[in-house]
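Please fill in the sequence for the structure shown.

STRUCTURE ENCODING:
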């Protein structure tokens, strides 16, 4: 059995169909269908049966999925172990929320490069939900996310706490619109909680893809938002914005470091943990 066949089988099983699996794997349906057919021929059994418009695993398919997940996890772990085996390893894949990427990651990477001069970090900036999935699937080695996160397969370290503030335009009355980051953002969840519990859901909702885009719209009076205080203080729009404190249950969001339990804590990872020592316990200002 080839790894690409097992990867395709796993994706079809999880997506419930060939089309969805093909989209996830950035390939055409015929490639997915051919790989599954060859795998079934090799094993001498049907792995899927039709269910409505989708597919479901047969009993042999469910047995194979258990083994395929273990094999693919070992393959991912082997890749991580080889890449991280030396202090001078060429690459480490780090994920982070956009706010952490903008305000803290450059200093952290500078400290890490002092520890591991030959290291070439690769950074993925996206939402907490996307980062969690990427770490669990071994697409990235570790990430900085908005917590609290609880998962049995993750090592989770508290890094510091961010203070969210309510951000308004300085010189105009804002429209009754709550401007949010996209789905999966930890700050979005807090903003929706504030809107529900403290504002009676009176705000219309609007969504943008970048922190500066959100703050720029707030500065123009298009609405309000919840944002880490230090992000607002460092923004190019800071002179056009004002902010106020929020109840602690809304305001305080832990930033956490996550790593898959199966990812080896080798030399370069130990260097990453060392580089965290400069971070404050709570970030309440710039």
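FILLED IN BY: designer on duty
SEQUENCE:
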């Amino acid at each position: 059995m080839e790894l690409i066949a097992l990867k395709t089988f796993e994706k079809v099983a999880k997506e419930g169909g060939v089309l969805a699996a093909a989209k996830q794997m950035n390939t055409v349906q015929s490639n997915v269908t051919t790989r599954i057919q060859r795998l079934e021929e090799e094993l001498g059994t049907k792995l899927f049966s039709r269910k409505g418009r989708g597919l479901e695993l047969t009993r042999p398919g469910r047995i194979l999925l258990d083994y395929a997940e273990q094999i693919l996890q070992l393959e991912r772990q082997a890749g991580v172990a080889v890449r991280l085996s030396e202090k001078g390893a060429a690459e480490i894949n780090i994920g982070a929320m956009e706010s952490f990427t903008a305000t803290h990651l450059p200093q952290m990477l500078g400290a890490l490069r002092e520890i591991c001069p030959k290291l070439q970090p690769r950074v993925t900036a996206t939402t907490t939900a996307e980062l969690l999935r990427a770490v669990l699937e071994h697409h990235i080695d570790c990430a900085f996310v908005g917590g609290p996160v609880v998962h049995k397969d993750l090592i989770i370290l508290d890094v510091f706490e961010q203070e969210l503030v309510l951000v308004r335009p300085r010189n105009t009355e804002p429209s009754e619109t709550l401007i949010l980051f996209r789905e999966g953002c930890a700050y979005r969840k807090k903003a929706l909680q504030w809107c529900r519990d403290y504002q009676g859901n009176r705000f219309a909702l609007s969504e943008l893809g970048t922190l500066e885009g959100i703050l720029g719209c707030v500065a123009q009076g298009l609405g309000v938002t919840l944002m880490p205080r230090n992000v607002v203080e460092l923004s190019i729009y800071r002179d056009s914005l004002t902010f106020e404190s929020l109840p602690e249950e809304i305001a305080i969001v832990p930033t956490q470091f996550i790593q898959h339990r199966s990812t080896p804590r080798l030399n370069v990872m130990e260097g990453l943990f060392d580089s965290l020592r400069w971070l404050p316990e709570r970030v309440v200002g710039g």
